[in-house]
Amino acid sequence: MFSEIPLRGEIFKDAPPKVRQGGHDAPNALGNSGASPQKEKLLTHHYAPKLLTKALLRDDVRIKVESPSTMANLGPGFDILAVAVNAYKDVVEVKVAPGSGEVRIASEGYSVPSGEGNAAYGVVNALRNYLDLSGIDVSIRILKGVPPSMGLGSSGATSAGVAYAVTKALGVSLSASDLVRLAGEGERWIAGAPHYDNVAASLLGGFVLVDLPTLTPVKLVDDVGIWFSIISFEGNPLEEKTKRARSVLPKELGLRVFSMQASTVALLIHALHRRDPTLIGRAMSVDFIAEPHRGKLIPHYRSLKELALKEGALGFQISGAGPSVFSVHASREDAVRVGGVLMDYLRGEGVQARNVAARPVPEGVRELGG
Fold first, then answer.
1. What is the pTM of this model?
2. Beta strand pairing status for 136-144 and 103-109?
3. Which positions ≥6 away from 13 have C-beta within 8 Å?
4. pLDDT digits over 251-274, tens only?
5. Residue 187: active-site member
6. Contact 30, 130 (CB under 8 A)
7. What whole-number distance in Å separates Cα of residue 35 and Cα of residue 52?
8. Pick the catalytic residue: 53, 187, 264, 291?
9. Which of 143, 179, 186, 257 has CB atoms 3.0–4.6 Å from 123's, for a disulfide?
10. Which of 242, 278, 363, 367 is flagged as catalytic?
11. CB of 98 within 8 A of CB of 139?
12. Any catalytic annotation for residue 167?
């Protein structure tokens, strides 16, 4: 579980991270450098502190974890809300051992690059900016179960699993905020910018809010008694999907649009705490920023939304940057039924897709035996 990592202070504040060296905890030299680096630069490949703690190992350490798929934005919560769902998962195996500083990354399952083209490399690369790993070999094996380029937090699941497993294997103690930052560097490595909503949900589980000014993850609730029917489109995914999905968004918002979006975000958070499926679905269906533009990139989006709501779905929305979409339901039976109706419609239109009924998963990254 995420909570198994002792959270002993944030490395960008007063308390430096601690690294277990030869069985003893030692403060990271970054905390005693006398400088106070900007928070947003601490765990990025743009920032290189002058003083590094050298990580030392006496024996090999192996950690195996699984990390869940996620859906971000959830309607009005652009870049700040996400939920972990049990639709798919990645399994990450990490081995750290005394060596010469090699980093080896192999990915199996869904087709994503191994080596430096993988989000995992971005996480390790960011970690090396404040922890000297020159005497340690890091080997990472990813069993890729979250489909990529579908808006289901694929790179986020890998990044979250790697950030958790590598830091724990090395004995590095990070706060929840800094672990989210570190995982976000995997997203930056792949997409060009960090996206913290997906990695926060994959790490923490449940419904998560990211406080962007401080990049602090806030777990709102574990489960609210709802089910999702998720539809993902088959075929060749869009090249640089997230970049394209962001490119269609407006650069500025009018005051009225901002007010309506803020009102709906507040309503959704209120509905989550009330555990009110009807109100949750209603709030998730509303988005004045991304949906009007991204919906045009998704096959038959408006028709799917109208049909889902007509069939009794409590809500309907785009998952993350898309192209996956989801409907909201009070039971698994309703999710399966409405998902079947939507799949029949898509088949009639000659569109290939897959459908899965899923629910929020309260636990994020967790360790596996063996």
1. 0.84
2. parallel
3. none
4. 888 999 999 999 999 999 999 999
5. yes
6. yes
7. 14
8. 187
9. 186
10. 242
11. no
12. no
Residue 110 CB burial class (10 angstroms; 0-12, 13-18, ≥19): middle
* Mean pLDDT within 320-325: 94
Instruction: Give pLDDT, residue 339.
Output: 98
- For residue 291, pLDDT beyond 80: yes
Question: Which residue has better confidence, 177 or 270?
Answer: 270
Asked if 120 and 158 count as a contact pair (C-beta separation under 8 A), the reply is: yes
Neighbours of 39 (CB within 10 A): 17
CA angle, 56 then 57 then 59, to 5°: 170
Q: Where are the beta strands (DSSP E) in the chain?
A: 18-21, 24-27, 53-54, 61-72, 81-98, 103-109, 131-132, 136-144, 172-173, 207-211, 216-221, 227-233, 315-318, 325-329, 353-358, 366-367
Cis geometry, peptide bond prior to residue 37 (ω within 30 degrees of 0): no
CB of 364 within 8 A of CB of 67? yes
Among the listed residues 49, 331, 340, 17, the one whose alpha carbon sits nearest the alpha carbon of residue 163: 17
Q: What are the chain's domains?
A: 61-220 (3.30.230.10), 227-358 (3.30.70.890)
In which band, very low, low, confident or very high, does the pLDDT at 242 lie, cut at 50, 70 and 90? low
Say how far residue 338 (Cα) sits from the centre of its chain: 27
Are the CB atoms for 220 and 208 separated by under 8 Å?
Answer: yes
pLDDT, tens only, 85-124: 999 999 999 999 999 999 999 999 998 999 999 999 999 9
Q: Could you tell me which of 188, 174, 186, 267 has the C-alpha nearest to residue 217?
A: 174
